[in-house]
């Protein structure tokens, strides 16, 4: 009886597993991981497409500026998606997400022992033109001239590297939380991209300038670190400044000497006081108050940093 039954079972057709509908996941996505709002936010683009052997995925960390990389172990099961990425140092970041009814994806990003929520939203691919640059090495008076022309405005001088992850994040957060939230025409932002890292160049600076797309922004370039050296005395620094945000209130003038900033923020760890840690949300609050003729307490602290995150993407 048992053998007969087994023989009958062997004759039954083998049913293939149902094919997973991957179409809702295909296309271009814009993603974001927020660990500390206004201070530590990682943006990335995701592209998912069908391939001969299934699905292919690529991810581009905007705040790193290192270009797209292939996903590993990409898997979709119903509304769930998971994949890994691996950077040049071999650090693995895992993503586990769930497709919501509104078409977005939300989930958990893990790197080592650190976890943070992430979101993805379908978006058209954006084509951005490189930002125009003013070369301070050939036009050393250009920044002072613009500073003086805008003396009736509140001015923020950013000194940053176009290939430094933390600098790029600061630029993106300046756009997202300050420029996009403070529409006041009296605000000006001078972004001085400088030759700090090995790959810094006019072309990488022009590309990084797209992170701050706003008519109130002026982008400069200096391979010789003009601004980092010119402004260092204002913060009593012996070394050239970088990854700093210097704030100058209206009527502050630049005469024979570079003016001391009315306030500043930074992304330089222990190089400057922790209460001056850059946070775009906090800076926007201060700018609104300053422009409203009610200066905030310049010693007020920015929100505390949460537990350490994936520092490689800063």
Walkthrough of the structure:
Residues 1-17 and 298-314 have low confidence and may be disordered. The protein has a 9-stranded antiparallel beta sheet with strand order 4-3-2-1-9-8-7-6-5, with no helix packed on it. Strands 10-13-12-11-14-15 form a 6-stranded mixed beta sheet, with helices on both faces. The chain is α+β, with helices and mostly antiparallel strands and 314 residues long. The relative contact order is 0.14. The protein is elongated and about 70 Å long. A hairpin with a 6-residue loop joins β3 (54-61) and β4. The protein is 18% helix and 32% strand. It has 2 domains: 23-122, Calycin beta-barrel core domain (Lipocalin, Beta Barrel), CATH 2.40.128.20; 134-300, Glutaredoxin (3-Layer(aba) Sandwich). The protein starts with a helix and ends in a 23-residue tail after the last helix. The protein has helices at residues 2-11, 142-149, 165-179, 202-208, 226-230, 280-291, and strands at 27-36, 40-51, 54-61, 68-70, 72-77, 80-86, 92-99, 105-111, 114-122, 134-135, 154-160, 187-194, 217-222, 244-248, 263-266.
CATH topology of the largest domain: Glutaredoxin
CATH class of the largest domain: Alpha Beta
- Estimated structural class: alpha+beta
Helix content: 10-25%
CATH superfamily of the largest domain: Glutaredoxin
Percent of residues in β-strands: 25-35%
Number of strands: 15
| N- and C-termini, Cα separation | 69 Å
Strand order of the largest sheet: 4-3-2-1-9-8-7-6-5
Mean pLDDT: 88
DSSP summary: helix tally: 6
Architecture of the largest domain in CATH? 3-Layer(aba) Sandwich
Domain count: the total is: 2
Low-confidence stretches: 1-17, 298-314
Coarse morphology: elongated
- Describe the main β-sheet briefly: 9 strands, antiparallel
Series of H and E elements: HEEEEEEEEEEHEHEHEHEEH
Backbone CA Rg: 25 Å
């Amino acid at each position: 009886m048992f053998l007969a039954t087994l023989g009958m079972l062997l004759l039954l057709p083998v049913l293939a597993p149902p094919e997973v509908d991957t179409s809702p996941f295909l296309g271009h996505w814009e993603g974001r991981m927020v660990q500390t709002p206004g201070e530590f936010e990682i943006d990335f683009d995701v592209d998912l497409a069908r391939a001969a052997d299934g699905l292919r995925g690529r991810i581009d960390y905007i705040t790193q500026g290192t270009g797209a990389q292939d996903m590993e172990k990409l898997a979709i099961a119903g509304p769930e998606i998971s994949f890994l990425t691996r950077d040049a140092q071999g650090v693995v970041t895992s993503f586990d997400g769930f497709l919501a009814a509104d078409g977005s994806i939300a989930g958990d990003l893990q790197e080592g022992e650190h976890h943070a929520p992430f979101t993805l939203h379908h978006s058209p691919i954006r084509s951005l033109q490189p930002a125009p640059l003013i070369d301070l090495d050939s036009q050393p008076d250009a920044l002072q001239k613009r500073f003086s022309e805008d003396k009736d405005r509140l001015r923020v001088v950013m000194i940053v590297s176009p290939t430094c992850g933390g600098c790029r994040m600061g630029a993106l957060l300046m756009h997202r939380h300050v420029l996009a939230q403070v529409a006041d025409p009296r605000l000006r932002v001078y972004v001085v991209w400088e030759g700090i890292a090995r790959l810094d160049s006019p072309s990488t600076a022009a590309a990084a300038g797209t992170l701050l797309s706003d008519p109130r922004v002026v982008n400069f370039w200096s391979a010789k670190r003009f601004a980092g050296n010119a402004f260092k005395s204002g913060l009593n620094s012996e070394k050239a400044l970088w990854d700093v945000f210097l704030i100058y209130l209206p009527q502050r003038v630049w005469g024979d000497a570079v003016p001391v900033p009315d306030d500043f923020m930074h992304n330089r760890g222990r190089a400057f006081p922790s209460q001056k840690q850059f946070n775009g949300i906090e800076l926007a609050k201060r700018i609104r108050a300053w422009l409203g003729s009610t200066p905030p307490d310049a010693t007020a602290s920015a929100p505390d940093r949460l537990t350490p995150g994936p520092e490689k993407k800063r």
